[in-house]
Amino acid sequence: MPRFNGNGSALGEGRMKSCWYEEEIEQNLRWCYALNGILHTGESKYQDIALLDTKPFGKALVIDGKLQSTEIDEFIYHECLVHPALLNHMHPKTIFIMGGGEGSTAREILRHKTVNKVVMCDIDEEVVDFCRSYLVANKDAFFDSRLELVINDARAELERSEDRFDVIIGDLADPIEDGPCYQLYTKSFYESVLKPRLKENGIFVTQAGPAGVFSHTEVFSCIYNTLRHVFRYVVPYSAHIPSYADTWGWVMASDSPFNLDTEEMDLRIKQRMAGENRYLDGNTFAAASILSKAVRKSLAKETQVYTEGSAKFIYGHGNFRKNRSGLE
Amino acid sequence: MPRFNGNGSALGEGRMKSCWYEEEIEQNLRWCYALNGILHTGESKYQDIALLDTKPFGKALVIDGKLQSTEIDEFIYHECLVHPALLNHMHPKTIFIMGGGEGSTAREILRHKTVNKVVMCDIDEEVVDFCRSYLVANKDAFFDSRLELVINDARAELERSEDRFDVIIGDLADPIEDGPCYQLYTKSFYESVLKPRLKENGIFVTQAGPAGVFSHTEVFSCIYNTLRHVFRYVVPYSAHIPSYADTWGWVMASDSPFNLDTEEMDLRIKQRMAGENRYLDGNTFAAASILSKAVRKSLAKETQVYTEGSAKFIYGHGNFRKNRSGLE
Amino acid sequence: MPRFNGNGSALGEGRMKSCWYEEEIEQNLRWCYALNGILHTGESKYQDIALLDTKPFGKALVIDGKLQSTEIDEFIYHECLVHPALLNHMHPKTIFIMGGGEGSTAREILRHKTVNKVVMCDIDEEVVDFCRSYLVANKDAFFDSRLELVINDARAELERSEDRFDVIIGDLADPIEDGPCYQLYTKSFYESVLKPRLKENGIFVTQAGPAGVFSHTEVFSCIYNTLRHVFRYVVPYSAHIPSYADTWGWVMASDSPFNLDTEEMDLRIKQRMAGENRYLDGNTFAAASILSKAVRKSLAKETQVYTEGSAKFIYGHGNFRKNRSGLE
Amino acid sequence: MPRFNGNGSALGEGRMKSCWYEEEIEQNLRWCYALNGILHTGESKYQDIALLDTKPFGKALVIDGKLQSTEIDEFIYHECLVHPALLNHMHPKTIFIMGGGEGSTAREILRHKTVNKVVMCDIDEEVVDFCRSYLVANKDAFFDSRLELVINDARAELERSEDRFDVIIGDLADPIEDGPCYQLYTKSFYESVLKPRLKENGIFVTQAGPAGVFSHTEVFSCIYNTLRHVFRYVVPYSAHIPSYADTWGWVMASDSPFNLDTEEMDLRIKQRMAGENRYLDGNTFAAASILSKAVRKSLAKETQVYTEGSAKFIYGHGNFRKNRSGLE
Questions:
Q1: Domain harbouring D26, CATH code
Q2: Which residues act catalytically here (chains A, B, C, D) (predicted)?
Q3: Which residues of C touch D278 (CB under 8 A)?
Q4: What number is the ipTM of this complex?
Q5: Which single residue of B78, C14, C297, D293 has CA 20 to 30 Å from D11?
Q6: Is B183 in the same domain as B256?
Q7: Biggest alpha carbon distance in chain B?
């Protein structure tokens, strides 16, 4: 034991900054958190799973080397994913989640008193078991009697099912070509599989990938454009999520118009929901759904649609800056 | 020359990912860009300066190991800093910049046709010379006859000066205790030095540090609160800046009300400004000035004021997550 | 759970390379191991302790952010520290270890059948407890009846003790100025405290810090020179330790001559020791004690002696490259 | 320019530690140098080239993301590669270098007064031009009239040539399967191409990859074993090279015995060579050619031979720790 840190590190500082979690946000861009510990690791048929204890963001769920959500800011992602759609619906009772095995999406849905049934359909049983065991904040949700857990591919399940839902929520990985979820973002999937499973006035909402000034061209603009070909009313919105080191996007779609104003949204939050939101209220959503000029222009010009047969070209992960013509 | 990279790196890939710029955004959180090159380095009496060629963000100006602005997204910061204040003013003719030696703030101001005089007051002549030499996008601004460059401490210059300005812009480093700019953010400075140098209906705007869901407690909320003690109308707003890995904040203040609506802002942009904005228009500003519920609540509760004598306690850089009681 | 690693990482690859242990070997030089896990962490009155599971080196003991030893190559350090001195002694029966709380030094000593008493004197009880609990390879050593554990400062213990030993072994942190162990490397300590506790023909050996072509000027040459002022016969030797990213040094000293040849060393290994060495035999030691021309010349010119009062100047950790005059 | 480094970084410190060169020594193990600058970059038909200015090791030549040699310690590699073979030869006049485009190997050869012709045969003209332009220490060598530069594949050149040489030196990348140099390490190449180009009593020496306690199983042991099938006398030796973070190996081979002793080597250095060696002398070589017990045993057991047709299995880069049976 011959070695001593003479670099003046105070007690308690040394160990802490020695261990790091590192992620390539995109090629050429890294994001690193100091670690307190590696709490649990596991492996499923499909993926590697880890629960880390990070210094800047608390506990962090990592799947296949990609951060999924962190203790201190997952509320932003999940409040934005769930509440705008449920609040815009007159009386959401039955909800279907594509993916969502982490449990946080179900937890937020179950705060809505109108809801009496939530189907969470995730393909990866080990991930669900891992999250149920280790994510304390979602414990109650996993044991809520209104939650029905299905282990299946979401497409297969929706094809098989004869139920119809008030709200369907896409909590899936991005539509990367050759990725596991591409088939769940195509025009034909939305038209022939998903839409028939929505009740009248039903609403579909999906996470829609990075939505930053540059990164929105990766998948956000294309998900938005694809949904415009399928639904009459489509609302894209976004919020900055610190642990993702980016602004994130969601798209909400329906054949009924969205005309909830700020005050009415605040009122429904008060009347229908248990607990208090940390991030979202009427004003927050109003701002989130006004995109910046740069993103707005870009979305308006988007022509790409996700289709099954062709899949001609999908903006590749990390390539978006090549498409920034006009920005330099 | 015995060593060969057998890891399957394609040609052109190897070199590129070998060199990295790394910054500790805060303690325990690192942000790293792959480098193409280190273009220029220099040293002033006060600071180290470098112009890097980064892969993800193009050319990047770094001062004392802290990224200042990058080629591909500096427009977000500078459009947000300059245009809301100038557009809200009826007819801005004379502008004073505290700091701004990079030249980008002057460049944006000079796009306003009403402006006939811009005083840029930066303490660091070498930084100004470095930027004038190397930042191609700001070349024209540095040679514009309306620009008057003063090398001085901004406080000393404002104390000495007898001129009054339509708009004063703070483009300074954050008010870190013992940092070089703390004195330019205090209540007494605003009251006794800055405000007397504003013309009637004059507007002050300052960059105000990180404004993310957590990071706004570092300095943003306190700058906002300090200005509320000095001006009758105060507008905080924010935008996500990819290269900063955070949402950034600005605060605009005046004794005259801000009542420009979205359409009128768009009209003034068209009438008064040369060239086209990339980021900012009426809608973008409307959204930028609606803070999220989390930040809004926190700003409303802020009691700290930057004062000269006391400087009791300033939320330290990197400590903000300790103040997140209630969020866990 | 929206994010997917589209970078083509195969299963099992993603997670593994996300977590890293990082150490600044010296200022400007970093050494990073991929991690499988953080097995145990602890804190003592003096130090932070961690047992990591690293991919390249197996389990690794880290104290105050400085790697101490790793499962797969600690045998190099410990065989080199212990066996040359014990084998050079005619019949080593009693051994005193200054430091050594990890237990590996004791483990190697206890392989010598001549030994009937080992005193391990470490100041940090928590480190000893931590290692006894978690370092499986040293379990037997900690429970060997010949081992006597003393929790005390080694200097105080040697001053207090009236015993004399055949071999004294220094398994301490480097003599960094203001570091915890500086007092255990000075000329006066060696003369008045340590030497009186050696029996006739007794041998002292100490770890002596980095001994690379450049790094030997940090402490190795000075420890060597200090011992030359105290003992008649002094033998410096070195070996490359992969996990340290450097060649390491030891110095053996006595007032009796060292005249064991290669064959005799091999014979004594066979006769006196249980188990088989992995790294050290007669030839290995012969090569280890022939320093390269660069290091030999530098040691011959060394004039610095560690003294208590003066401690004028000690080559600072990480500064050694400044002393490389003549090498450029 | 809003951002200030409040982390207490002293002047001159900030910039310096922001930019890093990073290399994966092997999978799961990284080695990082702080950078002062990126001096030159280039691209050849085959490879990317860069000359970096590193803080810990001075100027560093990097090819395809792999460090080749650094200003402050390249002398170790090149003295070890060149001098033992030339000194063991009775009167070396003509030398052939396979590879060596960097120029340092030629530089060391040209220090031998007996030498009247050096053929440097490198396949990559741009690398040679790059090094000739930028590596100041090798300027004289490149302009020495005894140097003959050939741009060709070394195998093709040796097949084509009718000259015979006193010493042939392999300064090539490691024999990685599918790598560019594998064909220059096979038994049949040595037998049918290389050996016929050696004069009587001629000596062949080659760099032989990492030779650390674990890493020697990558290629060192197999190069050694292959040469044992081709030459009567084969001498493996090694030295720690700080900038490589490893011990490096070379193998020298001939059909005449090597029986130069320590004193005779020192004498020949004095008589035949211009300038003074920094690293190598008789004693240094004596130690370098005594491998540690661990490596010696492993080399003795090596059965793999590099062959052209079969190339069954080559210890993969980074996999060596899997072959460490018996070490755990």
A1: 2.30.140.10
A2: 171
A3: 293-294, 327
A4: 0.90
A5: B78
A6: yes
A7: 73
